[in-house]
C-alpha cells in the first residue's frame, strides 16, 4: 500500500530537481537593446545605421522576355547625376540636401546641388515603363557630376526606396560593381569614359534640353526614326543646368516648359511604346 506514495514522492522530487537545474542554468541568449545612434552634424542622426542597413549585397533581377526575335531597343544616357560619396561620421554615404545640409554647409557646399533623388526617380521612370518590361530597353548609362560613368543592365530590379537606393549607389561607387543575387553577373558596373565607346555603331544620339533651339513633337520625331538606326537618348539628371551636347547628333526640345528628368523619360518611353505598339 506504501508503494504508490513512494512513486509519487519520487516524481515530486524529480520535478523539484529539474526546476532547480533550470534555475541554475545560464539564461538563454537575448537580443541586445540597440544603443542610441551617434549624433552626426545635427540633423544626420542615425543616418550611419540607416545607410548600413540600406547597403545591398546583391540585386535581384527581373525575368527577361524571350521570343527568339531580334528587335530594336532604346539606350538611355543620364548625364550629370548628383551621386557623391562623403564620409559623415564613421560611414560613407551618398550626400543629399535633406539629410546632410549642415555637413554640406560646413564644407562650404550648396546643399541644393546635392539631389540624388533626381537620378533615383529617373531610373524608376525607365525601369517601371512597359518599354522595359517588354524587353526593349537595351542599356542605361549614368555619368555623375564628378565624371564617373557606370552601366546598368536592363533587367535590374531597382530599389524602390530612396535610402536603399543611396546604399546601393554608395556601395557601387566604392566597390565599382554590384552583382546579381547568388551570381557573378555584374548588374551595375563602373566603366571607362567616354560613353560613346559603348554605343552601337551608327546609333543616333539625341540630346534633350529645354534650352535647345530645335523644338519637335516627340511622338512624330520617334515615329519617323528608322528601326535599323538605334536611338540613344541623352537626358540631364541634375537640378539645374544643361547637358553637354558635343557628342549628340541632334539636340531637341520636346516641351514649352522645363521638365523633370523623370517626366522627360516618361514621355520618351511613351513615344517609343507607341512606335513599337507596346500596350
TrEMBL record:
Amino acid composition bias (Low complexity), ranges on this chain: 19-28
Alphabetized Gene3D superfamilies for the sequence: 3.40.1280.10
Pfam families reported in the protein's UniProt record: EMG1 (PF03587)
Chain positions covered by the region annotation Disordered: 1-63
Subcellular location, record wording: Nucleus, Nucleolus
Molecular function via GO: methyltransferase activity; rRNA binding
Annotated keywords: Methyltransferase, Nucleus, Ribosome biogenesis, RNA-binding, rRNA processing, rRNA-binding, S-adenosyl-L-methionine, Transferase
Keyword field contains Glycoprotein: no
PANTHER family: NEP1/MRA1, RIBOSOMAL RNA SMALL SUBUNIT METHYLTRANSFERASE NEP1
Protein name: Nucleolar essential protein 1
Species of the source: Urochloa decumbens
Amino acid at each position: 500500500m506504501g508503494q504508490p506514495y513512494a512513486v509519487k514522492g519520487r516524481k515530486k522530487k524529480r520535478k523539484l530537481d529539474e526546476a532547480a537545474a533550470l534555475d541554475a542554468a545560464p539564461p538563454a541568449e537575448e537580443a541586445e537593446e540597440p544603443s542610441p545612434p551617434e549624433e552626426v552634424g545635427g540633423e544626420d542622426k542615425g543616418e550611419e545605421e540607416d545607410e548600413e542597413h540600406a547597403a545591398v549585397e546583391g540585386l535581384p533581377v527581373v525575368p527577361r522576355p524571350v521570343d527568339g526575335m531580334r528587335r530594336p531597343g532604346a539606350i538611355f544616357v543620364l548625364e550629370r547625376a548628383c551621386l557623391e560619396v562623403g564620409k559623415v561620421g564613421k560611414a560613407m554615404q551618398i550626400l543629399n540636401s535633406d539629410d546632410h545640409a549642415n555637413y554640406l554647409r560646413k564644407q562650404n557646399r550648396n546643399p541644393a546641388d546635392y539631389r540624388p533623388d533626381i537620378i533615383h526617380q529617373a531610373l524608376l521612370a525607365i525601369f517601371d515603363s512597359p518599354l522595359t518590361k517588354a524587353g526593349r530597353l537595351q542599356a542605361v548609362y549614368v555619368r555623375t557630376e564628378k565624371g564617373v560613368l557606370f552601366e546598368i543592365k536592363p533587367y535590374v530590379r531597382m530599389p524602390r526606396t530612396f535610402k536603399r537606393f543611396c546604399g546601393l549607389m554608395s556601395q557601387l561607387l566604392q566597390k565599382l560593381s554590384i552583382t546579381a543575387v547568388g551570381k557573378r553577373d555584374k548588374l551595375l558596373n563602373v566603366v571607362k569614359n567616354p560613353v560613346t565607346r559603348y554605343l552601337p555603331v551608327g546609333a543616333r544620339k539625341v540630346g534633350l534640353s529645354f534650352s535647345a533651339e530645335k523644338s519637335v513633337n516627340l511622338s512624330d520625331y520617334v515615329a519617323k526614326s528608322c528601326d535599323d538606326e538605334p536611338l540613344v537618348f541623352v537626358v540631364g539628371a541634375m537640378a539645374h543646368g544643361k547637358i553637354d551636347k558635343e557628342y549628340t547628333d541632334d539636340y531637341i526640345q520636346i516641351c514649352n516648359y522645363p521638365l523633370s528628368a523623370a517626366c522627360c523619360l516618361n514621355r520618351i518611353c511613351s513615344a517609343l511604346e507607341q512606335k513599337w505598339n507596346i500596350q
